[in-house]
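Q: Predict the assembly, please.
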Amino acid sequence: MSEAAHPRDYGLLGVEAEKAVAAGLKSAEWYHTEVSRKDLKELMKRSNSPAIRDTIIWLGLMVVFATGAWMMWPTWWSLPFLFAYGVLYGSATDSRWHECSHGTAFKTPWMNDAVYHIACFMIMRNPTRWRWSHTRHHTDTIIIGLDPEIAVMRPPVAFKVGLAFVGILDVIEAMKMMVINVFGHITAEEKSFIPEMEWPKVILAARIWFVVYAATIALAVYLGSWFPILLVGTPRLYGAWHHVMTGLMQHGGLAENVLDHRMNSRTVLINPISRFIYWNMNYHVEHHMFPMVPYHALPRLHELLKHDLPAPLQSVWACYKEMLPAWWRQLCGEDYFIIPVLPATAKPYRQDLNNPALPAAAA
Amino acid sequence: MANWIDALGVEDVANEDVSRFDHQGRTFAIYRSPDDKYYATDGLCTHEKVHLADGLVMDNIIECPKHNGRFDYTNGKAMGAPVCINIKTYPVKVEGGKVFIDIA
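A: Predicted assembly structure:
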């Protein structure tokens, strides 16, 4: 990324990080819709059942589709099976990684950890690095220079957004980081958000992954077939599109450097299959306001909060119809962003909690 | 030397739940376990300064509401990332329907 393409410095060690700290945006107080302790306790309750059911379906379907692809291999009929397998490998793992990193998917900790590590491997996110990165994302959501998980920086770079749908840049970055970590190195950016006591875990995971990928390649060479590589590693490329499609909706085109999740996050209603793949993260404002509520309770949380939140967009298409023009306008003027309209029943946006440089928001 | 403070009434904390108690500029979290025993810790998570009283109590665990870090509130032990530093605990006694904590 060149300086010319991105005048704003989204790096964690740059000038914007210093500005954000000086402006009081680091680890700041955020707006929350009021919810009674009784209701919240009910919503926060943990259960193993939904996630066990969903995990059996998820992994079971992967076995079914992989078997189907194997039986049809090497004909073109294997492609539909690989397409479905790829989405479960390269996209459903994004939400499993996410939910299990919060420890909310299962009631039993070891189940969270097991699914977390499986999902991390498939989505190519070092389990320790990304646990800490996501912690920071929740502390400083879309604060420039502090949040390491800002997916679309301003002005948007179209080819990078486009390439994200086939995972190329993510995979290159993941492989680069894996090799760095395999040799026992931790980068300066990693050091900025991962405590030193956790560094050996970063290195250990990278070395285990390296062995698994090497074994997969060795098996492919031994069999004289691409099939092992199509099942391990590359689905992160050809199956990434769904998690990128849904992931961009979370914060795309919305405000930066504000302390109200209603302004920088978005809730979108989507079809049941995508909700299964995405584990209800389409309820994203709700998730950021109350991250200890499990994915299966987010629809109920949405009902409780909706009087105070912008109306959810009604489909993926509706969301992209909102985001694409906003990104286009940001190409001309990167200060532009969408301000979601609040219902009459909502409390107004708290300008005192937000960047004073922002225009007055719609109430 | 002990410094017992009258913190809450026993019914101010629901079973398997936590309540916040502020005293002279300090904040504490007071827990009632499923077996009806009371415990107290510092009120703010050691990871980032978030009130644990807004979190979730599950058996002997308190989960921070912001990043889901977990402590064993009976002994203050940090149970794993993102909390790495144990939380301070305080002696508790119940007398006359009130919960006292020793903040000495």
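Chain A touches chain B at residues 27, 37, 41, 44, 46, 102-104, 107, 128, 131-132, 135, 138-139, 195, 197-198, 290-292 (CB under 8 Å). Residues 199-223 of chain A form the longest helix (25 residues).
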